[in-house]
Write a structure and sequence with these properties.
- The complex is a heterodimer of chains A (about 110) and B (about 120).
- Chain A is mostly beta strands and about 110 residues long.
- Helices cover about 0% and strands about 50% of the residues of chain A.
- In chain A, strands 2, 4, 5, 6, 9, 10 and 11 form a seven-stranded mixed beta sheet that branches. In chain A, strands 1-3-8-7 form a four-stranded antiparallel beta sheet, with no helix packed on it.
- The radius of gyration of chain A is 13 Å and the shape is globular.
- Chain B has no helices and eleven strands.
- In chain B, the strands form two sheets. In chain B, strands 2, 4, 5, 9, 10 and 11 form a six-stranded mixed beta sheet that branches. Chain B has a five-stranded antiparallel beta sheet with strand order 1-3-8-7-6, with no helix packed on it.
- Chain B is globular and about 50 Å long.
- The chains are: A mainly beta (about 110), B mainly beta (about 120).
- Chains A and B meet through strand 4, strand 5 and strand 10 of A and strand 4, strand 5 and strand 10 of B.
């Protein structure tokens, strides 16, 4: 019973590079989201999905893309990394009437 | 952007004290209010999901109440212990149709430190 699996745990990128943060859940949850955590800013919603094939933007979507081709997977793509995207990223999933189960987080540094 | 506010920002209490903190959220289009506990170097963990006005939930020494008409929820911790030290987050879910059921907006949290 893995829950929400996020990879990688740590990543250093150079400005302008692209990468994909992976997120997979094995609980058959409909709802999945990506948040970023910055000091003093709490958890801010980047993108979210309400089911396979359906995604929408959160508060801070610029510079990120998502897709949800299956119920299980919800990858987050950084298109052209910028220092402002240095953050801790959390993927989370839930059923409609339940709280989120969070992944263990990805600490990303853009230099 | 939905306004979800928590107060106080931080709180220091002594072991054995009871404490409470507040989450304020929009009183219109309410669907659910979540509470999470977030320990340092870990991921947030769900405590409660509250959906009905007047709801009261309890888990051990932690309880929460909900007032959807005035847009606030209280989290109470009875007899605080050092292991209760964590950031407590609330999050609001609006009933606004479309994909809104997927959009959970977090407050900035209350940092609780319980001193032995």
């Amino acid at each position: 019973n893995a829950g929400v699996t996020q990879t990688p745990k740590f990543q250093v990128l150079k400005t302008g590079q692209s990468m994909t943060l992976q997120c997979a859940q094995d609980m058959n949850h409909e709802y999945m989201s990506w948040y970023r955590q910055d000091p003093g800013m709490g958890l801010r919603l980047i993108h979210y999905s309400v089911g396979a094939g359906i995604t929408d933007q959160g508060e801070v979507p610029n510079g990120y893309n998502v897709s949800r081709s299956t119920t299980e997977d919800f990858p987050l793509r950084l298109l052209s990394a910028a220092p402002s995207q240095t953050s801790v990223y959390f993927c989370a999933s839930r059923g409609l009437y339940y709280g989120y189960t969070f992944g263990s987080g990805t600490r990303l540094t853009v230099v | 952007i939905l306004n979800v506010e928590q107060s106080p920002q931080s709180l220091h209490v002594q072991e054995g004290d009871s404490t409470n903190f507040t989450c304020s959220f929009p009183s219109s289009n309410f669907y659910a209010l979540h509470w999470y506990r977030w320990e340092t170097a870990k991921s947030p963990e769900a405590l409660f999901v509250m959906t009905l006005n007047g709801d009261e939930k309890k888990k051990g020494r932690i309880s929460a109440t909900l007032n959807t008409k005035e847009g606030y929820s209280y989290l109470y911790i009875k007899g605080s212990q050092p292991e209760d030290s964590a950031t407590y987050l609330c999050a609001f879910l609006a009933n606004a149709g479309g994909t809104s059921y997927g959009k959970l907006t977090f407050g900035q949290g209350t940092i609780l430190t319980v001193h032995p």
